[in-house]
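seq:
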Amino acid sequence: MVFAHTILVWTQGPDGLRGARARRAQLSGDEAPIPAIPSGSMIDFRRLRYFVTVARERSFTRAAACLNMAQPPLSRRIQEIEEEVGTRLIDRDARPLVLTPAGRLFYEQALQVLQRHNQMQAVMHRYVQHERPRFVVGLIPSGFHARLPQLIRRFRVMAPDVDLSLQELTSHEQVTALKEGRIDVGLGRVRVEDDAIRRQVLREEALLVALAPNSPLTTAKGPLDLAELATTPLILYPCEPRPSYADAILSLFSDLGITLEMTIEVRELHTALIMAAAGEGACIVPASAHMLAHPDVVFRPTLQPVTSPIILSHRMGDTSPALETLLRAFAGLYTEWGFPISASLRERLSPSQADPRPQGL
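struct:
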């Protein structure tokens, strides 16, 4: 028996988005083409939204109510789409309604098209409102980057015509905001997998152990073996949402085969440092945290070479000048500070871009 599936191919014409041809690709490797859709047909954003609403509600009645329209016109619009793509998308005999295999594929494609359209609208709205390009950076809470002020100043020198603004968002919130066009870049430490998002590791930052000055673990010289923390309460942050940096630290100990007797979870880095200073336990923090530290906190390097990535996330395919400027700003400052730059970032930037140093800074 030969099975087949339908593939929709979208094309962009001078008069808008066209629902293009469909072909039936057989698993045997043979192809049996379906007649192409007439070149004059056009599936617009309005009808795509109608279809997505029907697919989500699984009912023409509920979808019509959501769209504030009568049911017969809605049904006709869906029929028009089916006629243009050349196949049935919805099984109307099922209760509730069910998408056909072609309908499921069309639904996935429609979501991507509408998502990109929403991103475009958001970007243009920001541009019109501010009369110049606006570049929004999402940052995780808890003092993600102690050297962030220097980075912002460098970016503004390199791109004086760009309106840079910051938003505090968790790593997962950043992914949603990127896909909706509300931010242009996200900076965090947690790898969130999403096909629409590209992640760029800027560098791996060394981790330190934060302790109270009177802790027995501060008396020894040299790096601290993380195994010595097994019987010490480990202060983790943030406690929510999960997964987060806290889970990365737990995984680190698990990978090293170290079983922790007790953990304490708090919301923010600052709270964790205060508790460490008070002798409530130890906390694993990025090396840059010493710039934000409580004066009664002692930092010790670790015997094991453990690090935490600094990750820049952006929309797949984004080649905006502002994004490239931000990457060059990171690379330039890291070079000046003596920090190693990730191999992937070096490959992304040409040698001439890797160490930018604007005049007057």
